[in-house]
Structure formats: C-alpha cells, structure tokens
Amino acid sequence: MQPGDRDALWRVLEARRDHRHFGTDPVDDAALGRVLDAFRVAPSVGLSQPWHVTVVRNATLRQAVHDNFAAVRVREQDRFGGERRALYASLKLEGIREAPVGLVVSFVPPVEVTLGTTSGPSALEYSVVSAVTLAWLAATAEGLGLGWVSLIEPGGLHAALGLAPHLRPLAYLCLGHPALELHEPLLQTVGWAARRPLALDWRD
Amino acid sequence: MQPGDRDALWRVLEARRDHRHFGTDPVDDAALGRVLDAFRVAPSVGLSQPWHVTVVRNATLRQAVHDNFAAVRVREQDRFGGERRALYASLKLEGIREAPVGLVVSFVPPVEVTLGTTSGPSALEYSVVSAVTLAWLAATAEGLGLGWVSLIEPGGLHAALGLAPHLRPLAYLCLGHPALELHEPLLQTVGWAARRPLALDWRD
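Predict the joint structure of the above. Result:
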C-alpha cells in the first residue's frame, strides 16, 4: 500500500450506493473484467472459493428476471399496511431491464469438508457475500453503479437462466452506468428508513 | 472520488489477508474508531442495519473465547483423515489471545418486516457479512491485521460474554498488529488449498 490509500479507500466506501437507476450504455469489457477480478482477492472460509458468476447481458433473459422480481414485489407489498404500503408502492427497487449487465452470483456447495465450517456452516454462503461486497466496491471505483436485487425467487432464477444443477443463486446484481447521483442511501432520501449510530458495547 | 482511487482500492484489496499471527501492542483508539466506522457506510437490505458490535479487550474473556474455539477445533480435526489430518493439526487458525482486540459482530433480528427479505430472509445476515467485509478493508488500510475466526460455537460465545438476549453472534474478529507479512492466503502458503480461476459463464 501507499500513503493516501486509506483516504482513497474511504472515498470509495462513502461513494458506494445501491443503485436502481441506470443508463443503457454498455459496460466496458475491461471494467467488467476488473469487477469480476474482485472474486480473486475475496476472502473465503478454508479458502473454499465457493462461488460461480453468470454474466447476463441478454435482454430477453433480463426481462425474465424482472418478471420473477415483479411477482415477489407484489407479495412483499402485501406485508405492509397503511402509509407504509403506499410509500412502498412508490419505490423503484431495481434496474434489471435498464442495466446492461446482470450478474448472478451463485453459491457452489463444496463436495468435501471445508476447514472452518464445523460450528457454523453458513460461513460458506458468507464467503460469497464477502466476494459480492468487494465486487461492489470495485464497480464503484470504476464509476459504475451496482444494485443488489434481493427480491428474486432463486428457484425461478435458476430455471430461467438454465443454470447448472450444482449452482444455488445467492445474489442478483445489476451493473451499469448510474443515472442518478446518490449522496446517501436512496431509502433514506425517500423517507423509508434512516441510518442509525452503531450499536456498540465494550468488554474491557 | 479522485483520480487514482481505483488503483488505491486495488492495493488495499490485494493487501487484505486473514491474519492469525499478531503482536500484543494495543490498537490505537482512533484506528479502532475508523474500523468501526465502516459499519456506518455498509450496505444493508432495506437499510435495516441489523448489527451490533461488542469490543472485547479483556484478556480473561478472550481466553474464554479461545477455550470455545479450542473445543470446536478438536471436533473439526476429527472430520479429516490421513495426511490432511496431520496438516490440519499443524495449522495456526486464530490469534484470539494475542490480538489485543476481539470484535463480536452480532446479528440483530429486526422486529418488523424488512423491505427486500420476502424471497430471501438470509439477506439480513448477509448485510452483517457485508459490513464485516468493509471493516476488514478499513483495518487493512490502517496497517492492522484482522482475522475472522469461524470456529466458535455461538451459544457459548453469547454466554461467555454476557451478550444481550436479542443478539446473535455472527462473527468473531481478531484485530491487532500483524506479526507476519502475508503475500498470499496463508492456507495456500502451507499447501492446504490453492486459489482457482473464477468459474464463470455468459448469457449474451
């Protein structure tokens, strides 16, 4: 590392947002390559690297992913009532069709015992999440926007994309050029939720 | 962001390691504060921020955490056979007692419905993992070493530290000054596992 790298990291951390508004310009291949390269440097329990990425640029398939999302969204809306429900209905939650690239990040369950998983097997899925998080920062540093769409039913996603049987989709990421400049979480801007101070205690 | 921030991010990403060898020098309060500040900028599903951090500097409590780890390690060793078992027995897997700071990152299950969790409630725990991952980078950028010890039985950890009932320990992190310079994953250096190219396919 070099002097100034800490401040640079913090500029990237502060700039990272969950984007849902994208332009339709294509993503440069070299930039996409660097986003994917984040998986190379990601931590994983027992160095298991239990992940697989499917890059979805096909617009018909992205429409199918959006159909999946739309059905889940309807179900979720029913879980809220009153003013909250009306606000929910007004939110834009994803940019699946606009963003030129979708990334399906799948968990690949290892066939052998993995070091570090005896008391908590979820550490394997957590490794995939860490890798996604680093890819998110790599995208931010490219000036790209990334949005993690969690309202997707994984079985339907698996079928729509014809994924291999051993893959378990864990994250669907929209990647493209951001169409909105966001200086705080969008859910805070629209009044859905607010950032809170860190809940913290000490054992000295 | 500024020109050069992308390269700086990559230097931090390449420098991040899972550390198990620590000196016993204390961690500077300002540096610790910046590591914890990573939670402020972490993504979370529905802006739920479902996390809590307990900072453990007390040596007696860290010894208790180590006892928990040691018991799980014995169980895990039994899952390997032959040469693999002998290699496992030789590995240093944590620095709980040497590292002057332990961080227990707990998941705090929200009491209300969280936006974005209808098709995958695990997105809440995943948010905690993303935050831990950012804290890991923040520590790296401080020149500190961090190690995620996944071989800890969460119920015993909860009891030993007297955590509040609503907290579910998800990660135990060792934080301190690294005593070994690592240029690749330690598990690769010792021949336990090797990095693989990213498994990738395309839907164009």
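Chain B has one domain: 16-189.
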